[in-house]
Amino acid sequence: MARKAYSDEERTRVKEALMTTMIQCIVDRGLIHSSIDVLCKKVGISKTFFYSFFSSKEELVSHALRYQQPRLLDYARQLMEDPALSWRAGVETFLKNCCYGAKSGVAVLSIEEEQQVRLCLSEENFQAFRQDQVSFYGKLLSIFGLPVDSIDPRLFGNLALSMMMVHKAIPDTMPFLFPEVAEDMVEFQVRALVDEMERVKEDVRQVKADG
């Protein structure tokens, strides 16, 4: 049987389908249960065709995480523009929904999944992914009204991701933590982070007023 020829538009659609399917698989079942066979079956392509887009499942993961960034930025903008929400309520809502990724459809890797992806990525791909992450957190801070030089995007990323990953790790990966207060932990951490962001935001406002 002759192999089907795909147009550029069809290839673009298939690539996007692979990324969105990967995001949903991470949310629903985790990376370890999301094999290339499962992904190909869901998208309706052959394994051979998969490898014309990505060299491995882990490379797909890095692209899928980038792919969800514009959606997250749009969501942050919507919250900031919502007249029914205060600035603080908008930022807290965003962070909490990211922490509860399984409920809100946001793909967050576990500690083990991050290790697995890193081991399979080339140094070049890893550094490119890291730079995209720095850019993403910088844009997020800007949407929240915080100049990039007021908070290091890398620090903000570490603080936000650590909350998400620890919450996801309870109780399976971190059994000595207390799962019954996991959501209270998120509430506390989000409040503490937003307290600092609010302080920095006020400092920036005061400097502008004095200038």
How many strand units? 0
Low-confidence stretches: none
Portion in helices: over 70%
Largest sheet: none
| Strand/helix succession | HHHHHHHHHHH
Span of the ends, CA to CA: 73 Å
Protein name: TetR/AcrR family transcriptional regulator
Keywords: DNA-binding
Task: Describe this protein's structure.
This protein has helices spanning about 10-30, 35-45, 45-50, 55-65, 70-80, 85-100, 100-105, 110-120, 125-145, 155-170, 180-210. It is mainly alpha-helical. The chain is globular. Helix 1 crosses helix 4. It has eleven helices and no strands. The chain is about 70% helix and about 0% strand.
The gist of it:
It is built from 11 helices and no strands. It has 211 residues and is mainly alpha-helical.
Secondary structure blueprint with pairings:
Layout: H1 8-28, H2 36-43, H3 47-50, H4 57-67, H5 69-81, H6 87-99, H7 101-104, H8 111-120, H9 123-143, H10 153-169, H11 182-210
